[in-house]
Amino acid sequence: MAYIECKVWHFQGDDDIDLKSRHEAIKAGCRFYTIKALIDTSSKENFIRRSLVDKLEMEYTEYKEKNRLECLDLSFRYKGKDRLVSTNGDDVFNDFVVIEKPKADLVLGLPWLWLREAKIDMEKQGLTIYGDFMPFCEETDSSESKETNDSNHAGLKQ
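RE: above sequence
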């Protein structure tokens, strides 16, 4: 299995107005969780662990008898900086099905990978998203996300 490390953000209020305000919130120390996302080219859906959604205090909706999270902001490290890959809440391919025990905290399936023109490079052992290369990380127990910033920016509780 192939994993990439990413950060999951929950922007609120003024931080969620546009991409520029999201970048400013990142620089200001907005709280995030570092996780290992599973790249699953056999999946027709994207998945997120319910406990991670609860930690982020994000709301999800029921759609076709499944709990769905319609918007998720992720970033990847590229050349030492966080590269924000925001989602457009209007596109169903950005949805994540909220389940108790997926294979990892986050499972990036074909819809998510296709939207981002992702290319898997087995020779270099990584994934390219929008032209930026992210190496695969070692497979480990991905059962718990790791909070890595204790800032109260944007109203997230500790």
